[in-house]
Amino acid sequence: MGLLVLKFGGTSVATVPAIENVANKVAAEIALGHKVAVVVSAMAGVTNQLVTYCTAINPLYDAREYDAIVASGEQVTSGLLALALHKRGIAARSWQGWQVPILTNDVHGKARIKGIETDNLKASLARGEVAVLAGFQGMAGNNRIATLGRGGSDTSAVAVAAALKADRCDIYTDVDGVYTADPRIVTKAKKIPKISYEEMLEMASVGAKVLQTRSVELAMKEKVPVQVLSSFDGALGSDIPGTMVVDEDNIVEQEVVSGVTHSRDEAKVTLRNLPDVPGVAAKIFGGLADAAINVDMIVQNVSPDKARTDLTFTVGRADLPKTLDILKAAENDGLKGIQVESSADVAKVSIIGIGMKSYVGVASKMFQTLADKGINIQVITTSEIKVSVLISEEYTELAVRSLHTAYGLDQA
Amino acid sequence: MGLLVLKFGGTSVATVPAIENVANKVAAEIALGHKVAVVVSAMAGVTNQLVTYCTAINPLYDAREYDAIVASGEQVTSGLLALALHKRGIAARSWQGWQVPILTNDVHGKARIKGIETDNLKASLARGEVAVLAGFQGMAGNNRIATLGRGGSDTSAVAVAAALKADRCDIYTDVDGVYTADPRIVTKAKKIPKISYEEMLEMASVGAKVLQTRSVELAMKEKVPVQVLSSFDGALGSDIPGTMVVDEDNIVEQEVVSGVTHSRDEAKVTLRNLPDVPGVAAKIFGGLADAAINVDMIVQNVSPDKARTDLTFTVGRADLPKTLDILKAAENDGLKGIQVESSADVAKVSIIGIGMKSYVGVASKMFQTLADKGINIQVITTSEIKVSVLISEEYTELAVRSLHTAYGLDQA
Questions:
Q1: B19 part of contact set with chain A, CB < 8 Å
Q2: CA B47 to centroid of chain Cα atoms
């Protein structure tokens, strides 16, 4: 008899029948004796439509008004789910961000939750009601509606679970868990039953788009057990059919490598013949930061002649044209003589595993595996539990499959 | 340099270009030096879509959840209009019902406004901001969202105008004013420049669907000058191009008859051979009231034999089948021997005019005019400033046109 927070994304509440399906899942958890709070996204497509209106009217829109507009989508689904629960004889009420209230900072459009006042929610749950919360939103200063950024409903759910000290936070989505690799590429990919917060965080940041990165950070900080599972296959959270994201200590047998991820959303830029003097990197990356361009992998080669050097980095593929414009400007502004090369035909492939901390030779096995297949590694970056390599995009599937086999992840 | 409240209905904000048009009107009033509060409806069609969702999920929906769901439509348009004003360099912010707050009673789905806290609004207006209010909504007890019933944005606008002591409340809609008759029937119908609250109220209740009846009642009680005008013909409220609804005292030259209205939404029921004893009418109308059927005109004929009598009344045409069922049940329950006759081929035609109070012969001229055209009057009801007759539906246009001419309303 626990307290559960269930989160349903946009595809899970996209239509009236989908909402009925969600109500059935909530009803099944109630029948098991659990108390339930639900966090819902807007119907799939609704938020995009609202953003389109905003952009059409005023591309330089005031984020406070944007927030009031786009938060309306979750308002609708929270009410509709409450109605669907009533039909099943289950007491329920909707809660908008301002009604809870979920308090945020004033960074409209991508606000952060400062705190959740739980007295009203707890009283409602104690009366036996299901609390149906509008995700993605809260209340900033001056009683203005604030939203948490795209995908923010995951963060809403984890924050509510933390505030209520829930036993589990089930994130229902359109995949049935986290896999050792993308099953569309690796047919032998396995669903991972348990994964650590750290691994999930690395996966979220290198391309596995299952959970919003911020929600994983928050779950890790607050030690909220999170399960990723599917809305669409009849599974129920309390049967633990999905992937549990938990503290490292709760994973008895740690895999050396838990998964192989890939991302095609990369572009590579190489600057040759850079003056090897202090301040050059700051000049280049400062300009990119000012343009809100996120730089991912950075490698500076040893300069052969000690006076000039080469620098390679990656940016999001969509940001490549703007990046080249900025570098052109820098060239005209004190960095004369540099050569700029770029390529969008690259992919990032990563291996992730908490077990790497205590094993040696994990990275060298990766490099050897790729070399055996004739795949050239362009850039390498590592963290304590991740190794990422940049390769030519055409080798993506081959690299992922080879690594999946090499680290013993293929399904028996 | 006044304070104006402008209200724009669903067709006036149905699309992005329509919202831009609204912003232009607001900007024009600001350019004249006025302070402006705007009340907006949802985009045309949105509220119906949301109601369809509610009904699909749970026909017996909880009105509190219904309110949270349908109020979202106005939330969107209030934000979008604020963005469109920003683009024109005009400071503006959206206000949801709970943000003002507009306080209502707890009758969800058709709540009444109890009060409006104006401190925040006034401070915003004083800072030079346009206040863009979501119409149709307020906050009931327990911080729940409440809505005022269909067409409630008119009432929102008048209530806000009263609370702010605005100089005028302009209701922008899809017609350019109140006419002496429906221009689709009477080509010589004239726009009425000024009409009294009482006349407008009678017109609203007998078929002129320009303003919600409740909003006129409120305007009369609070003495808010209301103008009805079109969003679509380039007119600006401050030029007073529409129909002003004002106190009787402000109308210098009162017409004997201000307008001729008609309604085809009627059905007639006649009960013959009713026992002429106390309690019979109560039995019949009590049953109809229990079924929420609104009875309009009622006439009881003198009974020729002093023991039995005839009774005629009208109901909404859509309610006729249910009405006949109830009368059938009453016949089997102590009203044996009565005969029930009914007809849906009827129309109600009314003449309305504040001047009737001080002129005699107004009604008889109506009866004579209709008689001259061979139109039989089936039922007559009168109020102090209105005479309504029920006639065969096929004569509707002829009756309206004849009366329009007879009372000197034809355009020169």
A1: yes
A2: 18
